[in-house]
Write a structure and sequence with these properties.
The protein starts with a helix and ends in a 6-residue tail after the last strand. Strand 2 and strand 3 form a beta hairpin. The chain has two domains: about 130 residues, no CATH class; about 100 residues, no CATH class. By secondary structure, the chain is mainly β.
Amino acid sequence: MRRQTFNAGIILWMLFTNVNNTLASERIVLSSIPSDIWYQTVYLIADKKSWMEYENFTVQIGDMGQYVYNFPDWYHGKYDPYMVKADINDDSLDDIIVVLNNDNAAIDQPLKDIHILNQIPDPNRRYEEAPIKSISIVLKNKVSIKQFNNLVSVQIDRKNHTIDLSKYSYVNPRTPYISIELVDYSIEDGKLYATVPVLILRDDSVKGGGIGHIKIRYAWNGKEYIANQLDFLKFTSENQ
């Protein structure tokens, strides 16, 4: 019965939030992180502007809205968002990571936006959105790609990786590039990673051919999440 009361509370809270906007949009729960402890359940709530556009976000912790954080500037497009709780800054407190699809991104910009709510270790449990170093800036400062005939050189932090394009079955492979639009984020062993594919143009498909991907591990330096480790993982011809 108590659980039903809490669930009713969240529904009523949603219905009467932003009453003035109800005619223009529908307030919905886009995602949630369930918990057996009612005050630790996390809800991702937003205004549904169209069948594939969501704005005016709220992150609610607890079935009765014990902690409510509003993010009016967040945006999400089609496909499901990604939300998870994990301790990614090694303070023994679970942080909240939200990845949204940005269909309005400019050309050569990521199609996914990541938002991190650090849990703050003080007497009153609370969260703050933490800055993260832009993936575009990280790649610009730390990665360079060059091609010499059939050989592609990917240099990361002065370490060189060589890819022989003749090992692949692509037709006329050329012009290697980093596809930052396709960046993806994941949590592995309590660490935050970004993965960005490295592709080449080819005549046998309008899609780029994969030759590897750059894997970036982020760490908290006390002020922001920075890229503290970059690796290049080469695809073998059998992967194509």
